Amino acid sequence: MEQRTPGPRPHPSAPGTRTPDPDARRLAAVMHTTFFLLLATSLARFLLRHPGGARVPWIIALAAVLALLYALPFLTSALRARHTTPLPSEPGGRPTPRDLTWLALVVAVWLVLVVPAPSFGWCAVPLFYTGLRTLPPRAALALVAVLTGCVIASQLRLAGRLDPDLILGPPAVSAIATAVFLHMRRQATRQRELIDDLIRTRRELAATERREGTLAERQRLSMEIHDTLAQSLSSQQMLLQAAERLWDRDPAKARAHVRTAESITERGLAEARRFVHDLAPADLADGGGLPQALRALAERESDAGLTVRFHAEGAPVPLPDRVGSALLRTAQGALANVREHAGATTAALTLTLLDDQVVLDVADDGRGFTPPSGAAPPTGVRGHGLPAIRARARQLGGTLTIESAPGEGAVLSVAIPLGPAPPPADAPPPPPPPHAPTPPPEPLP
């Protein structure tokens, strides 16, 4: 039956929903209109053939009942303000009891009408469609066969003689109508399957993008925490431990360590607040640019155990915020590794500004290590911050190069291109363009 139980309509992209087929809607409209036209034409033909007959009132009444029964779903939909053209039922779908009751009443009234008035026999053609749409395939084909037999009998009775055309014509019409409908239903099924596949693929793609976005944000947060809060806490711990060892022998130096730790705490708190609000590093927010921020970092990191120097090459150029933040975080992480793992006494930061790229070199005279091969992250304690540095460089289309050997110190170099748009993070890094060789870091004593 055409009408549907009123209720909230799910979004077309929701699981389990079907997208209406425009061809099926047009076919439904044509068949419903054809039924009423055939019904009116058959009634007019009967009245012309039997004017003033005793059966005329009964035939008119039965035709009106059949029209009302057939239109009942549309009237119900109109009363409920849900006028929708019915769609063919799903192949092999189960009709509701209301659908079966409605179809049985329509067919029964048509049979009662066609017995005394064979002119109404051709109204069976739209009923073929109604049965095929409402019933499962086997039951629908059985109904089509029964209706076809009734049409043949009514037409032979109307003709009053055995006519081969009347025997072969109705089966041919029913076969063509059935074949057309089944073909359209198969096409509609394939279209719905394609739409469902597209919706499912789009939903899976959106879920994948959400997962990738979550992982990227998690990686960004881990890098920011490692290069800000973790490094700040590590420096505070080392200074406080040194102050505790010197407290009795050299109180003045111990208090100096405590004051330095307090200063680091204040800067770490400021960085944490800026990090929460997704702002640029505090050193860059001061307006001095990356060279000034690296110079301030070198001064802060220099103490009795480690001397850090800064050197800039090239004409100053404005850098994108992402590039400046990434290089400053790289320098912070690299110096933290030098202090914790290298056992170095001197480190050098060298910033080289070129027309097409910016290069940051971090060198130390520590114990050195064997660099990891390829893009695989290092596994030793020395390489705790290297994966974050490599990830930052790749996100901006840059490269990370490490030169080191046991007992010979280390040089970490990050090169980031200055272009309109960096390549994707997972793309292989492009070869560096030709330029003058980067000046080596300052010689270490």
Report what the structure shows:
- Strands 1-2-3-5-4 form a five-stranded mixed sheet.
- The chain starts with 21 loop residues before the first helix and ends in a 28-residue tail after the last strand.
- It has two domains: 22-207, no CATH class; 289-445, 2-Layer Sandwich (Heat Shock Protein 90).
- Helix content is 59%, strand content 8%.
- The chain contains eleven helices and five strands.
- It is α+β, with helices and mostly antiparallel strands.
- Helix 5 (137-159) runs antiparallel to helix 6.
- The chain is rod-shaped.
- The chain has helices at 22-49, 56-79, 97-114, 124-134, 137-159, 164-246, 251-276, 282-285, 289-301, 321-342, 386-395, and strands spanning 307-313, 346-353, 357-364, 399-404, 410-417.
Salient structural properties:
Heat Shock Protein 90, 8% strand, 2 domains, five-stranded mixed sheet, 445 residues, alpha+beta
Strand order of the largest sheet: 1-2-3-5-4
Overall geometric form: rod-shaped
Helix-strand makeup class: alpha+beta
Instruction: Tell me what portion of residues adopts beta-strand conformation.
Output: 5-15%
Helical stretch count?
Answer: 11
Radius of gyration: 42 Å
First-to-last CA distance: 93 Å
- Number of separate domains: 2
Elements, N to C (H/E): HHHHHHHHHEHEEHEE
- The total of beta strands comes to 5
Average residue-wise pLDDT: 77
The residue ranges in which pLDDT falls below 50 over 5 or more consecutive positions are: 1-19, 81-92, 375-383, 421-427, 432-445
Question: Could you estimate the helical fraction of the residues in percent?
Answer: 55-70%
Biggest sheet layout: 5 strands, mixed
